[in-house]
């Protein structure tokens, strides 16, 4: 039995790691925010560069050197945690996830960013899995069901796409959210508080605040539900000490990272959230989020699940006599796990700058477990296996649209750039921060020259003494791409031009002098 208890969890963890590693290794491109993740973690801050590299116009650069300089850790900058704090003070997020990325990068300075991200996010995903197993078992699910339902969630398209292969802080945020739920389940409201409860609560609140500021919104709603239970049980001492613990955790977070106050209330994201709360759209945004949750987590069948669950509740109420104590206990954990998620999604739909599953994926595990545990509880014994089958169907159907953040479509773009890596590269931009999104393509170019908007008219007709060019032209109204390409071709005696791909902010063209005998 001792061997079984040790090796079975180890085997399950290894299986999850291998599956996630197999999926993650297919990742071919990066979102601009992912590039920022590594740059903010590793690139040294300076007043001139700020949190990006300042690329001088007209200076030839090697693409791989740009990539390594920004995303990689320098020999003199290993374990330079002060630099991470400095970078994050000029960004919009707290530093914990970036500190972890910097630690891995410092330990393995030659490791490609793909494997740095996976080396952090996959273990975090395993932590999420075992947290879910604990929660599921705590609320009454049998161990085998707890393991399978939790595995289906962690290997589901929504979690894999936005928490594992997307190199941002959402896997770590999921750990913090689940940990907070676990604290309130482990220490019920009717029990007196003890040192373990307060110290654990404080550290989790501090860790969540240092991971992502949206955590404070979820934590507020979850704590309010728990405080209501404390009031019902007249546990006044625990109420006071819990509030003091929360205040101490937030205060400690501000002392550790003073920039957090300005980022929440004065930073551009903070001001944007406040403005969205005042005049932003809610109805259509909320509907958009529900659609993304349905596709990413419930295989596109979320409305059907809600309908079936409601029918089961009605049938069960009519045919069974409840044990009032059991009903109250079940209702207590159900509200604790579901209400904060629902309220959080509504708030995020109102204030978030974009409607994307990444902003809500971290809080979905409690909702997922609550819904499936309720279905298992309500169906007859012979039907429980069909609930498990339903979860498996959701797992498979969630992958119908693929994984957006693998950027598999970038493979062809990269191969085209690689095929012409020796061509002269010209990058015409309007806003320099948008160049970051093309770093994954530029890294395969031997020579690339940048020209800002002020230099377009003067420099686009220069003879670069080459027979092939790859030209990245920013997508904006101020730049007539056809005219620019015509001038480049005329100045360099080119007679062939073809579009090779379009990325987020630019379109890339391949120019060639056919018949060149050079």
Summary tags:
518 residues, five-stranded mixed sheet, elongated
Polypeptide structure, described:
With 518 residues, the protein is mainly alpha-helical. It contains 23 helices and five strands. It has helices at residues 2-24, 32-42, 63-71, 81-89, 96-107, 113-138, 143-154, 157-164, 170-186, 195-209, 214-232, 236-256, 259-265, 268-279, 283-297, 302-319, 324-351, 364-378, 384-397, 410-419, 439-442, 456-459, 481-491; strands at 424-428, 447-451, 468-474, 496-502, 506-512. The model has no long low-confidence stretch (mean pLDDT 90). The chain crosses the membrane at residues 7-24, 113-134, 146-164, 216-232, 239-261, 296-317, 333-353, 359-379, 386-403.
Find the structural class using helix and strand composition: mainly alpha
Unreliable spans are none
What kind of sheet is the major sheet?
A: 5 strands, mixed
The beta-strand count equals 5
Number of DSSP helical runs? 23
CA-CA gap between termini: 76 Å
Instruction: Round the Cα radius of gyration to an integer and report it.
Output: 26 Å
Tell me the strand order in the biggest sheet.
2-1-3-5-4
* Percent helix: 55-70%
Secondary-structure element series: HHHHHHHHHHHHHHHHHHHHEHEHEHEE
Can you give the mean pLDDT? 90
β-strand percent reads 5-15%
* Principal-axes shape call: elongated
């Amino acid at each position: 039995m001792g061997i079984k208890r040790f090796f079975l969890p180890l085997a399950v963890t290894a299986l999850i790691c291998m599956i996630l590693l197999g999926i993650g290794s297919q990742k071919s491109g990066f979102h601009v925010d992912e590039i920022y993740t590594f740059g903010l973690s590793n690139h040294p801050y300076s007043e001139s560069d700020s949190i990006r590299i300042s690329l001088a116009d007209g200076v030839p650069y090697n693409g791989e050197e740009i990539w390594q300089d920004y995303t990689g850790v320098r020999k003199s900058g290993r374990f330079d945690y002060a630099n991470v704090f400095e970078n994050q003070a000029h960004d919009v997020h707290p530093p914990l996830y970036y500190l972890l990325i910097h630690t891995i990068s410092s330990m393995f300075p030659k490791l490609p960013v793909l494997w740095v991200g996976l080396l952090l996010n996959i273990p975090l995903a395993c932590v999420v899995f075992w947290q879910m197993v604990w929660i599921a078992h705590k609320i009454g699910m049998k161990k085998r069901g707890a393991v399978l339902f939790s595995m289906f969630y962690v290997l589901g398209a929504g979690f894999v796409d936005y928490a594992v292969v997307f190199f941002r802080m959402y896997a770590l945020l999921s750990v913090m959210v689940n940990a907070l739920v676990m604290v309130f389940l482990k220490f019920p409201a009717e029990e007196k508080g003890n040192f373990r409860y307060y110290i654990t609560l404080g550290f989790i609140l501090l860790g969540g605040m240092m991971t992502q500021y949206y955590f404070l919104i979820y934590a507020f709603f979850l704590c309010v539900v728990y405080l209501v239970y404390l009031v019902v049980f007249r546990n006044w001492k625990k109420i006071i000490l819990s509030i003091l613990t929360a205040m101490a955790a937030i205060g400690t977070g501000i002392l550790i990272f003073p920039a957090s106050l300005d980022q929440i209330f004065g930073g551009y994201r903070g001001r944007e959230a406040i403005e969205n709360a005042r005049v932003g759209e809610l109805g259509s945004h909320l509907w958009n989020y529900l659609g993304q949750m349905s596709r990413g987590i419930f295989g596109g069948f979320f409305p059907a699940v809600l309908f079936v669950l409601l029918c089961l509740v009605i049938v069960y109420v009519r045919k069974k006599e409840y044990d009032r104590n059991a009903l109250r206990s079940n209702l207590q954990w159900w509200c604790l796990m579901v209400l904060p998620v629902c309220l959080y999604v509504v708030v995020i739909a109102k204030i978030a700058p974009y409607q994307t599953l990444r902003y809500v994926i971290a809080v979905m595990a409690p909702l997922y477990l609550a819904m499936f545990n309720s279905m298992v509880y309500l169906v007859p014994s012979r039907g429980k296996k069909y609930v498990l089958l339903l979860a498996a169907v959701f797992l498979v159907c969630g992958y119908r649209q693929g994984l957006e953040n693998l950027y598999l479509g970038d493979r062809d773009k990269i191969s085209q750039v690689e095929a012409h890596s020796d061509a002269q590269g010209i990058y015409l931009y309007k806003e320099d921060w948008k160049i970051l999104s093309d770093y994954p393509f530029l890294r395969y170019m031997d020579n690339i020259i940048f020209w800002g908007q002020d230099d377009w008219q003067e420099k686009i007709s220069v003879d670069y003494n080459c027979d092939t060019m790859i030209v990245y032209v920013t997508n904006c109204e101020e730049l007539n791409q056809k005219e620019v390409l015509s001038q480049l071709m005329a100045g360099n005696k080119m007679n062939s031009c073809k579009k090779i791909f379009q990325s987020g902010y630019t379109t890339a063209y391949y120019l060639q002098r056919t018949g060149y005998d050079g």
